[in-house]
C-alpha cells in the first residue's frame, strides 16, 4: 500500500505560513495583500470555487475583492474592469475565473492583466519567464503539485516524469517545472501512442486529463509517485454525485509508492498556492523580500 499525500493537510500548512507572513506585513509595514477574483456568468462549479477562494483569502488575513459579472458581459467591459484592477494599489493579485463565455477572447483578457498581478501565471510574459527559467508567477495547480513532490522526494533530479495532458493551465507548466527540477520529462496527450507503456516507465506520474479514472493501477510502476490533478464529478449513490480523479485510486494505491487522493489532494493545494502567489506578488510590488518556501 502506498503513502497518501494529504493535500488537504499540506494546504492548511501552506495557508498557515501565508497567514503568518500576512500578519508580519501588516505589523511591520501596514500593508494588506489583496486578491481580486472576477467571475463571469453563473456556472455552478465556478461559483463554488470562487466562494471558497474568497473565504480562504479572508481567513489568511488578506483583502478579498469579488467581481461577479453577468454571462453576457462584453469583452470591452471585462477589459475595462481588468484595467481598473491593474491600477488599484490595494489589489496585488488578479484572477479571472476560467472558462470564460465563448463570446469573450480569453487570451486577450488574460494578457490584459498586469503580469506582476497575474497570480494564475497565465499571462504570456509569465509563461515565457517560466519557460526560460526566470522568476515568474507560477500557475497554482502545477506549483501545488511541485510542492508536494519536493516534500515527498527531496530532490527530483534524474527521475522519469510523465505528465498526461498538455493544457496551458496544467500540463505544459507542470512539465516546465519538472524540467526545471532536472527530471526527464515526457508529455503525453490524446495522440500519444501506447500511453500505458509510456506511463509504466515513470517514477512520477502527473495526470491532468479530465477523464474519470482513466489511468488504471496496472499502468503504474511499482513504487512510483502519482499526482492526480483530475476533478471529475460522476454519478454517486442514489441521486448524489461524487468527485473522482483521472486515476483509479484503489488500484493505483496498491502499486504506487505515494499517491494524492481526490478530493483532498491537488485541489486544496491549488487554492493555497493562489494565496501564496498573492503574497509573493504583494512582496514584489512593495520591494520587500519574497516569502521563503512558497515560490517555485
Ligand atoms: N485540482 C485542480 O486544482 C485543478 C484540476 N483541474 C482538472 O484537471 C483536469 C485537466 O484539466 P485541463 O488541463 O484544464 O484540461 P484540458 O481539457 O484543457 O486538457 C486535457 C488534456 O488531456 C489530454 N487528453 C484527453 N484525452 C486523453 C486521452 N484519452 N489520453 C491522453 N490524453 C488525453 C488532452 O489531449 P489533447 O491536447 O491532445 O486534446 C489535453 O491535453 C480536469 O479534470 C480539470 O477539472 C484543472 C485545473 C485545476
Ligand atoms: N483562472 C482560473 N484559475 C484556476 O486555478 C482555475 C480556474 N480558473 N478554473 C477552474 C479550475 C479548477 N480549479 C480548482 C481549484 C480548487 C479545487 C478544489 O479545491 N477541489 C477540492 C474539492 C472541491 C469540491 O468539492 O468541489 C478537492 O479536490 O479536494 C478544484 C479545482 C481551479 N481552476
Ligand atoms: Mg480546462
- Biggest sheet strand line-up: 1-11-8-7-5-6
Heterogens: NADPH dihydro-nicotinamide-adenine-dinucleotide phosphate, 5,10-Methenyltetrahydrofolate, magnesium ion
CATH architecture of the largest domain: 3-Layer(aba) Sandwich
Tally the helices: 10
Strand runs, count: 11
Helix content: 40-55%
Assigned CATH superfamily of the largest domain: NAD(P)-binding Rossmann-like Domain
Strand content: 15-25%
The low-confidence parts are none
CATH class value of the largest domain: Alpha Beta
Number of separate domains: 2
CATH topology heading of the largest domain: Rossmann fold
Judging from the principal axes of the Cα atoms, what is the shape? globular
Cα separation of the termini: 30 Å
Q: What composes the largest sheet?
A: 6 strands, parallel
InterPro entries: Aminoacid_DH-like_N_sf, NAD(P)-bd_dom_sf, THF_DH/CycHdrlase, THF_DH/CycHdrlase_cat_dom, THF_DH/CycHdrlase_CS, THF_DH/CycHdrlase_NAD-bd_dom
GO biological process, one term: methionine biosynthetic process
Protein name: Bifunctional protein FolD
Pathway: One-carbon metabolism; tetrahydrofolate interconversion
Amino acid at each position: 500500500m502506498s503513502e497518501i499525500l494529504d493535500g488537504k493537510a499540506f494546504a492548511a500548512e501552506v495557508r498557515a505560513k501565508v497567514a503568518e507572513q500576512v500578519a508580519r506585513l501588516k505589523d511591520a509595514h501596514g500593508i494588506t495583500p489583496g486578491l481580486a477574483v472576477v467571475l463571469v456568468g453563473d456556472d455552478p462549479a465556478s461559483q463554488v470555487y470562487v466562494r471558497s477562494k474568497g473565504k480562504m483569502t479572508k481567513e489568511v488575513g488578506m483583502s478579498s475583492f469579488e467581481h461577479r459579472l453577468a454571462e453576457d458581459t462584453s469583452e470591452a467591459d471585462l477589459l475595462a474592469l481588468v484595467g481598473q484592477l491593474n491600477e488599484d494599489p490595494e489589489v496585488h493579485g488578479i484572477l479571472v475565473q476560467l472558462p470564460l463565455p465563448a463570446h469573450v477572447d480569453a487570451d486577450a483578457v488574460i494578457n490584459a492583466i498586469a503580469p506582476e498581478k497575474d497570480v494564475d501565471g497565465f499571462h504570456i510574459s509569465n509563461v515565457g519567464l517560466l519557460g526560460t527559467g526566470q522568476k515568474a508567477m507560477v500557475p497554482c495547480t502545477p506549483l501545488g503539485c511541485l510542492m508536494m513532490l519536493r516534500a515527498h522526494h527531496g530532490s527530483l533530479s534524474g527521475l522519469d516524469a510523465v505528465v498526461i495532458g498538455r493544457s496551458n493551465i496544467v500540463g505544459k507548466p507542470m512539465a516546465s517545472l519538472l524540467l526545471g527540477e532536472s527530471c526527464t520529462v515526457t508529455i503525453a496527450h490524446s495522440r500519444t501512442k501506447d500511453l500505458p507503456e509510456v506511463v509504466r516507465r515513470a517514477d512520477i506520474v502527473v495526470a491532468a486529463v479530465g477523464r474519470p479514472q482513466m489511468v488504471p493501477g496496472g499502468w503504474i510502476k511499482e513504487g512510483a509517485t502519482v499526482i492526480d490533478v483530475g476533478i471529475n464529478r460522476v454519478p454517486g449513490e442514489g441521486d448524489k454525485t461524487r468527485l473522482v480523479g483521472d486515476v483509479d485510486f484503489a488500484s493505483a494505491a496498491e502499486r504506487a509508492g505515494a499517491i494524492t487522493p481526490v478530493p483532498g489532494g491537488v485541489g486544496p493545494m491549488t487554492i493555497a498556492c493562489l494565496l501564496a502567489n498573492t503574497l509573493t506578488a504583494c512582496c514584489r510590488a512593495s520591494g520587500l523580500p519574497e516569502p521563503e518556501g512558497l515560490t517555485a
